[in-house]
Amino acid sequence: MALCSHKLRRHRGRSEEPLRCDGKDKTRCCAPDRVLLPGALRWSCEPCDFDLCEGCAAAEPKGEAAGEARKQESYEAMLANQELYDAMFGDEEEPQTRAAPRLRKQRPKPKATAPSLSAEELREAEARAQAAADALLSELQAEAPGDAALREALASGSLEALREAIGRGGGSAALMAEARKARDRLKKKAAKKGAAAVTPDGEARQKPKPDDLPVQRLEPLLSAQ
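Structure tokens predicted for ZZ-type domain-containing protein (225 residues):
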């Protein structure tokens, strides 16, 4: 079937979504509520982008008459669009046509452009931007109040000093993280030393006193005699 200058395809549209029938004769349309459901027979023209049910396709003019009807519809649509454009953007002297809606005529206004700056104004703007950037950089590079105490605690290597400096706070994030790592390392070392100083029975090892050393050394000699 050829309702226009193209060849129509008859199919059931199983892979398509529900489409609206483009037929003009509502009385002969066989689609429920003029909706073509997937699986329903339809005639489709991909170049013209329209779909017709069986009843509307039978009521449409065929052959050359169909081509002339389509051309006339396209021409009428073009005239309607032109009249609408003239009504919205046409000259004031031109009268409005009856077909066009009576809208207020308005021409598109040109966009406002930014005023050009002189060389001196450009230099001043660059100087202000540079000053703002320098102020921001100096603010970022400024040392936090607690950084000095954190550095001293890190240099001392004392667990107590690190605990004090971390508890006081007020330092930068990087130094605080470094101080916490150093504190954790010292705590692990202290824990290992404490574990080594305990006997298998759970009692703390006691270092021999200096006065006991000579006696311990002489005991084997006395026992041998």
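The longest strand covers residues 42-45.
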